[in-house]
Amino acid sequence: MTRATLTVDLAAIAANWRALDARSADHCETGAVVKANGYGLNAAKVATTLARAGARSFFVAMASEGAMVRKAVGPKADIYVFSGHMAADTLELTEHNLIPLVNSAHQARRHLDTMPGNPFGVQLDSGMNRLGMEAAEFAALKDEIMAAGPRLIMSHLACADEPENPQNAAQLSAFQGMTEGLAVARSLSATGGILLGKAFHFQLTRPGIGLYGGLPFSDSRPVVRLSLPVIQTRNVAPGESVGYGATWIATRPSRIATVAAGYADGLLRAMGGRAYLWAGNIRCPLAGRVSMDLLTVDVTDLAEVPPTLDILGPHQGIDALAEAAGTIGYEILTALGPRYHRVFSGS
Ligand SMILES: *Cc1c(COP(=O)(O)O)cnc(C)c1O
After folding, report:
1. Is 21 within a domain?
2. Is residue 35 annotated as part of the catalytic site, yes or no?
3. Ligand 1, atom 12: nearest CA belongs to which residue?
4. Total tally of structural domains belonging to the chain
């Protein structure tokens, strides 16, 4: 084996979607966020799997991603675009029947003028100050927008991964204030919001990370395994160093394995000296810095060095690896590079 193998468990993604669906209020539809190529795992495979599991609404960040998802799921599913209706998007939105979530009065105007009669939704800002119309901006256009029949009105929570954060209730109340009484489906919650409880669910939820086995959905099934081939092993005497900067120095007669993946493959440099690779159930610490294409691993305690070592798997999931690198599971997943051989199981 020459390439590292990223195994994606599609059955686990489907199971996570069903589990989040089961936690949602009755009559609330569970959508699926497949932006950034399905959090780095292959949006077409993920969307096809979830469509089979029963998902009917998909969310992407931009129109080009929507085109790819449309091809995977066929003509019936709803595909929403978070970046809304950008000037260059009109053709792609029309051609692939995508639903832009208009973010501003400017975008609403563009949509209603250039694509009259085509489906759209509205994104409101309820306090995150990232995307969406502000209350006054929406109020000024509300009658015209409602007359055009939006498919969905949504907003996004900034702190949903912190259940105690008072901003959750404040955003819920701001969202309700802007949308109360409107005859349209509403959506406020991503993974974190689903776990906050039914008051946050409205008619449609938008889980992303929980589908892919990440926090804050702590009951999710792990989805990825990443196995890295060992290229070479060597003995290192006490006092000798390993890797760039000579930061790791052997304190005992040691055996070092060099494996084929590095920061160019999304194994962030910040995890150097802090993450582990696994040989079955045995933990082997990273020795020294992460190189662009290589990692060096202390395998002294192994009776035998296997052909591959796992950096993601049952013992070290995306959130554990993220913690070693000082980041979040989302960044670990979306950084996983194009050089891995991706294998899909359980489809
Ligand atoms: C990315 C995103 C989601 C999904 O969030 P997760 O935390 O991954 O569940 C939902 N809604 C919006 C607007 C997003 O940008």
Report:
1. no
2. yes
3. 156
4. 2
- Distance from Cα 61 to the centre of ligand 1, integer Å: 9
**What separation in Å is there between the alpha carbon of 145 and the centre of ligand 1?**
24
Cα 206 to middle of ligand 1, angstroms: 6
Nearest CA to ligand 1 atom 11: 190
295 with 320, same domain?
Answer: yes
250 within domain boundaries? yes
342 vs 340: CA distance, rounded Å? 6
Question: According to the model, what pLDDT value does residue 3 have?
Answer: 85
pLDDT tens sequence across 222-251 = 999 999 999 999 999 999 999 999 999 999
Residue 153 belongs to domain with CATH number: 3.20.20.10
Pocket of ligand 1 (CB under 6 A): 33, 35, 82, 156, 190-192, 206-210
Question: How many other β-carbons are positioned within 10 Å of the β-carbon of residue 215?
Answer: 19
Are 237 and 204 within one domain?
A: no
39, 244, 263, 330: the active-site residue: 244
Per-residue pLDDT at 44:
98
Intervals of the chain under pLDDT 50:
none
**Nearest one of 228, 294, 290 to 2, comparing CA atoms:** 228
User: Which ligand 1 atom minimizes the distance to the CA of 161?
Assistant: 7
- Statement to judge: residues 40 and 189 lie in one domain: yes
Active site residue 45: no
Task: Quote the ligand 1 centre to 140 CA distance (angstroms).
Answer: 27
Domain carrying residue 327 = 224-345
| Domain membership flag for residue 148 | yes
What are the strands, taking DSSP E only, across the chain?
Answer: 5-9, 29-30, 32-33, 57-60, 78-81, 99-102, 121-123, 152-154, 185-187, 204-205, 224-236, 241-242, 248-249, 254-259, 276-279, 282-285, 295-298, 308-312, 341-345
Q: State the pTM of this model.
A: 0.97
Domain boundary residue, one of 212, 242, 261: 212
Which of 13, 16, 23, 33 is the pocket-test mutation for ligand 1 (most atoms within 8 Å of CB)? 33
